[in-house]
Structures are given as structure tokens and as C-alpha cells.
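Quick illustration for those who missed Monday's session on complexes.
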Amino acid sequence: MPENQQKLIHTFGALAELGHEVSQKNNFQEMIRTSLHLLLGALGIMRGGVARYSRFGHELNMLAVRGLGDEFPLSLTICNEDERQFLTNGTVPIEIAQAKVLPFFQIYDRSFAAKKLELLVPLVIRDEIVGVVLLGEKANGEPYSSYDRDIICAMTRHIGVGIAQRNLMAELERRAEENRRLYDDLRMTYKDTVKAFATAIDCKDKYTEGHSVRVGKYSEIIAAELGWDDEQVEGAAVAGYLHDVGKLTVESSIINSPHRINAKETAALNKHPVIGYEILLPIHHPYADVPLAAKYHHERLDGRGYPDELCDRDIPYIAKIVCLADSFDAMTTDRPYKRRRPANEVIEDLQYNAGRQFAPELVTAFCRAMLKEITLETKQKKFRRLLGREYLEADGIVPLLKNALNGMNGTSSLTLVSLD
Amino acid sequence: MNTNYKVSVETSGETAIVYASDYLNKLSGERIERECRRQIDAGCRTIVVNFGETEIVNSIGVSILLGVIDAASGAGARVVFSDVNEDTIELFEMLGLTNHVAIQG
Ligand SMILES: [Fe+2]
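Prediction with fe (ii) ion bound:
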């Protein structure tokens, strides 16, 4: 085979393999190592290295080296002047011996001379330096020909593209991660704000300390028992936390009155759902229906609630959840002129009012969640923490809950026509 | 990369015969170079690279062989290429590898 022809086949084989290697989504380190082998082997070059440029540190960090020994620096610093020159030069080999005017070559002169490095190729992709390739002497002892330089240009450009691609991917991953963190931060901020609001609401009412927070937790239990996804469950909790936000504008004397309030005071108090809705409506919530939960949490399935006397099918589902959670908490905590009712009475009340005040399937879900916890079917201790163990595990609760579950089966005559 | 690949090597006195096989042409061929370095470090004075099972040598293969040559020359050891086919000899001549090694038929 004529020598020239064989040379062509050998170098173009290397070029083709390099193109293939760079376009594959292989391990980056392996890609760079393979590329360096291909470049050195294509022209019979004894030694060399590939470095990646870090703009922040003005450093060239060696990614792969061949035959440069242990003493060769793994990181080379370049100054602005070097950078400018490399940029103007582009991806064309620079004769190291002829470039001594640049600070870079003065600083590393000894390292380059010790390893007989002859060429430095800046890897410039889209007007940006992404790295350099260093090349030592050829095995045949001859100087680099113009043919060699053309091959070097073509191959190093491929390596430059490989590094640029990697940089781009890293940047994309970094931004995606940053975005995710920002989103998490926003959600955390929102949750903290919601909790702060809930605490503010509860401070106003000295008799029902912690009410909003508990309603949030009960709403969460119901939503989880219904099999909602994590985000929806969180939304239900938020709706519970904020349901009484309208009370912030009601006179403290009315809210904290130790006596039964009169008709005028009752009218003022009963405005809190609508006021809450108006407060919450302009806020952008990550969960839908938070304002509606506030507005309709005092509606009843039988239409005897307020503010709009809505019937079952017209009441937003989230408001039904919060309504049940709210009433349950009212019955199970001490009030100014009423001690909390025993657990069995409360369950009987829920059962009696399923289809009247509460959506039966929600009462079912709530009782089921409670039964699961008492019978240790779940390891969660949510009810226990909210109500106290003694209260929750009073005699006869389990059969009562089972009976309630059998008796309701999730529907009633009222809800048959009104499922959302 | 084939992680199960093991370099074939035979030693006798201060000579080690390393079989290039087909792996020479892949990144896994770096193991051949490492094995040669190990032999040199262990006192071997002659490294024989056998090409009996190597049909062609690509650029990766050439680069790895240059690594072997570099390691040997640094330690004052000799490199011999044996069982090399004609086309490959021509390639080694063209790229200057034959300046550094002896070729054995
Ligand atoms: Fe309320």
C-alpha cells in the first residue's frame, strides 16, 4: 500500500472514531482519554494532554495526560493577556518555542521544556476558550508538517466541542437544580407564612388556642385517607390552617366573649367566612380552592349553613373537608362554656350528622383513619397527638367506629343525588 | 469497556511477553500498558509485545504502544514487537515507532 494512502486511512480512521466518541453520551472522562489516545496515535505523537478551562479560576485543569510524568502541573493559570491571545488565535496550533512573549509560556517554560512539548492548541468554541491541548514531539523525530497541523486542527476542534457540550450540560443541570431549590424555598416560605397566619388567627381567640393548626391537621388526615396525592394533601392542610383567617377582623371582645353573644354580635362573627375569602382571594396560592374553603366552611349539606345556605352539590369539596375538621375540633376541645364531649358522643354526632351537616364519605374516611390508628393498622400517631391517648382509646370506641363505618358505607340518601 | 478482560503475559528471566490482542485498540488497552509498566518496575529488561492475535492497530493502539515505549525508555528497557503483519509494520515505520523498537518476524 502506498505510504500516503495508508497515512490517510489511518488518520481519517482516527478522525471518524473521534467524531463518534464525542457524539456519544459516554462517560466524559473516558471520552477525553479516548480522544487524546486517538489524537496522539493518529500522528505518532509521544506525549500530550487535554485541559479544560475554568473561567472563574482562570485555570486550565488537566483532564487527561499521556507521558507527561508526575511532576507536570495538573492546573495551569492563565492571565487576561494570555486569554486574549488564545481567543484571537482560535483553534490553531501555537509553536510553544515561538510564543515565549506570553506570560503563560514564561511561567511554564521549564515544565514544557522538560517534556519537550512543541505545540499548544487553544480550544476555542463560539468565541470562548473551553480548554487547550498540549502536544509533545513526534515518534519519528520529524517536525510537524502542515498536513499534521490540519489533522490536529480538525481533531482538537472535536475535542473542544466535546468539552463545550459537557459545560453546557453541567450548566443546564445546575440551573435545573437551582430552579428546583428556588421552588422549594418558595413553598417553604409559603408554608411558613401560612403557619404564621394560623398562629395569628389562634392568638386572637384565647379559648380555642391551636384551633386553626388542628383543623389543618385533621383536613390533612381526611385528604390522605381519600388517597389524594402529596400536593393535594398539603393543599387541604393549608385550607384548614387558613379557614378562619377572616376572624382577624372580628372584634376580640366578640370572639372572646365569656357569655353567649347577642344577635348583632353573631352577625358580625358570621361574616368571617366571607371576609376570609376576600383576604385570601388576591393571594396566589400553589393550591386551588384555599379561598373557597374559607368562604364555605360553615355551609351544611342540608342548606342550613351560612353565608350562602348552599346545598350539598354546590358546596366545594375542600370546604366540606374543612367543615368536618372544624366541627370535630370544636367538639373535642374545651370551649368557654362547654367542656369537650366524650369521644363516643362525638362519633355518634358525626354519624348522625352525616348527610345533614357533613358529607358521609368524608365521615367514613375520617372514622376509618381513626380506627386504623387505634387498631395499629398504621404506625401514625396523628390522632393520638391531637387528642391524647386516653381520650382516643376510651372504652367502646372501636366497636362504635366499626358500627359507624358499616352503617354509612360512604353514602346517604342525601348524598346519593349530590356527589360532586 | 470490558471489565473482565485480563492481559495475557508470559515471563522468562528478564523478558516479558505481552499479548496485544484486540483490546489494544480500545480504552481497555490501557491495561496492556499498565501491565508492561508493572513488568518494567519488577525488573524486566525486555518487553516483547506479541501481535499474533492482532489484525490491525488503530490510533488508540498506537498511542498505547507509544506509552509502552516511553515507559521502557525511561527505565532503560528494550521493546520488541513480534509477529507483526506487513501492513502494521508499514504503519509503525510511517509513524516512527520502529525508531524505538526492534521488530521480530
Ligand atoms: Fe369558622
